[in-house]
Amino acid sequence: MTDQSSAIVETGAPLPGAADPGPRDADRRGLLTALLHDMSVSAWLAGLIAVVVAFAGPSVIILQAASAGHLTAAQTTSWLWAIGVGSGVLCLGLSLWTRTPAIAAWSTPGSALLVTSIDHFSYATVIGAYLVSALAVVFVGISGWFGRLMRAIPAPLVSAMLAGILLPFCIDAVSGSGGHLVVPGAAVLGYLVGKRISDRWSVPLALACGVLAAVLAGRLHTAGLAVGLAQPHWTTPAFSLSAVIGIGLPLFIVTMTAQNAAGVAVSRSFGYDCDDRRLITATGVASLVFAPFGSHGLNLSSITAAICSGPTAHPDPRRRYVAGVACGVFYILVGTFASVLTAVFTDLPPGLIATVAGLALLGALIGSLGASLADTTRCEPALITFLATASGLTLLGVGSAFWGLVLGGAAEIVLNRRRAPRETRE
Asked: What is the pLDDT of residues 99-151, one digit of tens each?
């Protein structure tokens, strides 16, 4: 690798004149040949870790929302099937299409929003609100408004927002043990040993050591699980203005600001020049397709994207798209066996999931912090963005990632906006 490409791997940020991380060489080969050539164990493990992280925690929020909305077992399983298969199709298709680790997921803030609002409406009108939100995402993607807005935001502020998103997960690596230190301690030990050997194996070894410790400590119980395929359940949508305002509009806002904006930021922070119009539009179309089966919204991911886009997936940025392909395959498997695999992921000790997620994101946090503070003229706006995002601030139902950019952008305007020269009279 050249010095420049090594710098991309270490910092997660592109350098001026650095090679495009997109694997252009692979474009000259057939799709299958290129994929087989670029395969790596570390990329597949990164995809697996991303799916475990995505399902182990956020799936519990979905189960809470399903309980609050009095959904049947068939509707709940269909919801899990829709977000799993839908996310998998997007990851698989977009990663192969763009030859970058294009990682999709479902809206976690959106599912949290539903916990307190889904029971106010009939399930058919909730599905209708999902469709309206998805249509709005498609419109924004096709129009290109989202891309123009993202390009107007200074790069240090975007990196600071990413750092603010990642910080709580890295803190949870320490504080999320719940007083049980054996399992997360084994994961940390595995990470350090793997780090000493090679960056590529640090996170996989952390997960393996943590799972082994959980088994030996008797904290992993899978007895009595019934194997069966998830059955998608169609719900004919109905439309209600109150449901659109109460669910559709807030869901659209949090999806675009807290999810898609962060997802694009993650991809660009690792040097990938992603086509936001193509990606956003694709997530909107997929949301339309899977909404009648219960999916509340599919979007670009930030946390799991950082896992699949970093050097632990592969030292060569051009070959990390395989992690996106692997993520898609595992998502589809989880969706297909939603009831079984979700129970397994939920049964993993919470401290283990928090620890592995935090360890997997340490490199991305270091890179984004460095990039956010590299421009000395923008340190204060970047720091404000970082602190506001990390605070978890929520106003008007909109998450902290959006408000971090708003506050940081305001500081940027006040501190760095050029004053117009005064006109002098002759």
From this structure: 999 999 988 777 877 877 888 889 999 999 999 999 999 999 898 777 776 66
- Measured CA to CA, the distance from residue 389 to residue 190 in angstroms comes to 30
Cα end-to-end distance, the chain, whole Å: 60
- Alpha-carbon separation of residue 35 from 115, 267, 315, 324 (angstroms): 40, 20, 16, 12
Report helix, strand or coil for 54. helix
Q: Other C-beta atoms within 10 Å of 348: how many?
A: 21
Distance of CA 206 to the CA centre of its chain: 21
Give the whole-angstrom CA distance, residue 247 versus residue 234: 20
Provide DSSP, 385-406. HHHHHHTT--BTTB-HHHHHHH
E strand or H helix at 252:
helix 249-254
Give me 224's structure tokens.
């009595």
CA torsion through residues 359, 364, 367, 373, sign: negative
Phi, psi of 397 (to 5 degrees): 80, 5
Q: Are 196 and 205 in contact (CB under 8 A)?
A: no
- CA-based nearest residue to 187, from 163, 211, 164, 170: 211
* Domain assignments of the chain as residue spans, ordered by start: 21-173+228-348
Per DSSP, the chain holds a count of helices (H) and strands (E) of: 23, 2
Query: Which one, of 219, 225, 204, 215, lies nearest residue 349 by Cα?
Result: 219
Distances in whole angstroms, Cα of residue 410 to Cα of each of 360, 362, 413, 418:
32, 29, 5, 14
DSSP letter (8 states) at residue 245: I
For residue 293, what are its two tokens?
A: 């089966």
**Does residue 88 contact residue 335 with C-beta atoms inside 8 Å?**
yes
Backbone dihedral angles phi then psi of residue 298, each to the nearest 5 degrees: -110, 140
Q: For 246-296, how does the pLDDT look when each residue is reduced to its tens digit (9 = 90+)?
A: 888 878 877 887 688 888 888 887 888 878 888 999 999 999 999 999 999
Show Cβ contacts of residue 377 under 8 Å, excluding neighbours closer than 6 positions: 416
| Measured distance CA(411)–CA(346) in Å, rounded | 42
Residue at 333: amino acid letter = L
DSSP character at residue 312: T
Do 89 and 286 meet the contact criterion of CB atoms below 8 Å apart? yes
Q: How many CB atoms within 10 Å of residue 218?
A: 7
Q: How many CA atoms lie within 13 A of 190 on its CB side?
A: 24
Q: What is the DSSP string of 79-117?
A: HHHHHHHHHHHHHHHHHHHHTS---EEE-HHHHHHHHHH
* pTM over the 0.85 mark: no
Q: Between the CA of residue 113 and those of 84, 88, 120, 126, 410, what are the distances in Å?
A: 19, 23, 12, 12, 27
